[in-house]
Amino acid sequence: MKTPLSRLSLCICYCTVLAVAFFYYPRWNCSNTEATLSWDVSGYYMYLPAIFIYKDINKCRFKDSILDRYHPTPDFQQAFTHSKSGNYIMKYSIGQAVVMAPFFFMGHTYAHLSGTFPADGFSYPYQLAIGVGMLLFAFMGLYYLRRILLLYNRDGTVATILLLFTIGTNYLNYAAIDQAMTHSVLFFIYTLLIYHSIQFYKSPSRRATILIGFLVGFATLIRPVEIISVIIPLFWSIHSATDLKLRMAFLKKNAYLYLSTAGVAAILIFIQLLYWKVVSNEWMVFSYQDQGFYWTRPHIFSFLFDYSSGWFLYCPMMMLPFIGFYVYLKNGSNILAVVLFTSLNFYLVTAWDIWDYGGFSGRAMIQSYPILAFPFAALIDKIHHKKIMSILLLFLIVLFAYVNIWWTHNAHRGNVKLGGVSKAYFWEVIGRWQSPDDDIIKLLDNPDFIENNSLGGKAVYENTFDTDFSTNCINNGISMKSIFLDHSHQFSAEYVLNANLKGMKFIRATADFKSFQKEWDIWKMAQFVIKYYHNKTEIKSNFIRIFRFLNANDQKQIYMDSAIPDIPFDKVSIYFYNANSDKKIIIDNLKVEIF
Length: 595
Description:
- By secondary structure, the protein is of the alpha+beta class.
- The protein is about 45% helix and about 10% strand.
């Protein structure tokens, strides 16, 4: 008997995830902020060591020893001090910790038995157990995605969707590398929720309602906005206004079943409320503090197309399901549930004020991919027998998959910076596996950067600062006298360029820099600045962040470029700014050329 293509595709997907997780980037072998239990994941997970190892869910007195030894985050970002109780409140909901609990206990048991690793919640056995354990959810999610899609689509279409999600989208990263994030788990929960919603309307039963309630409650316990998952069981299999009327009648007749669903979901959600009550004596705590929703101004364009993290720029494959809606709305099934959920979910995701989600905005949409698989499949089904359209689609698929693999590599092991980048830098490096020049990183701050360090311009200004009597110049540094910036000395003097710039296109300023400690906070990196004024009004500025190029105890000559504006100006100044950093930096031998 011939093996179905979708089964073969599923096997390829499993092998891809395993190969990436175990051989390409086993995150459990990494340390500090690249370890499995780092950044957001350490926040989801922190409940478990706090409760079961340190017995200190209120004060988290163990936090400093964990930060000092494992450095999962630069500081304690996993919780905040509650103003009334004085206790620490975990930032993230408890649901992901519940998911991780079985693997945590496996790691804890191994650490105790090994005699080699400390049983402190963050040593290697815990990293390994959580990392490997969470891969199971990726496998189960893909398994159930195949099952539900086969109910509505050709086998070949299902095989294609599985491959495209796994190889062509950011799902690969969050299934195989950042697998301990919430996205792969929620992806699985949504596939299971769709599957049991289908089964319920085939054969309604209390058992099915309990399962659905459990899934809705668990999704909400992991990420509160996932309460919208209730849309799926409420509106699944509705295709028309007549279906909607019949559903309302069914709901009224079987209200006790829906109440069972709500009751089970409420019991799970109550776990979070109970935690808040125990640690703060309040039933409700908004743990994200100063973060929230811009209900009237969702960041739609930025979320999709911003060069720093836009979903469609870094995961272009997911443009295709939205194109597929054109076909799906004409001939698809379960239209009401799919459209209503997609619309509300997209609104909530883009309304969050931290719209880039700490790096790559598209990760917030991964759990909705099982829903978006339906219009995606409709598109593939529609054009698979149209030769020209099929060739065009194949070209786009290959291109988009290439971008995804490029993104996945450079997010972890590559030399190209991703996230927080400028338009100029994005288009310079997109698709490249090696950054062409270390200086190209200047495009992150300065779009006027020219990739040529020997242009042979005309020197119009030089300053060794040896005769500079400003308060920020000291007799200590690279030569006799230098600019010195630190916490108490944030700005240098402004050095005005008195030169005839007529007919010139660019200014290049060069200086020598010496560091002592590395400034890692991008917003506090010292800046090298050129500004243009007209009648004391600033009309243009360029800058670069110096610590992008300096490590601890480095000494380098660094240049920056500025395109001379076409509009009138009467003053050009150059200065240095420490951006509220306390890291010391010495600057000398400023030189300016025009060309």
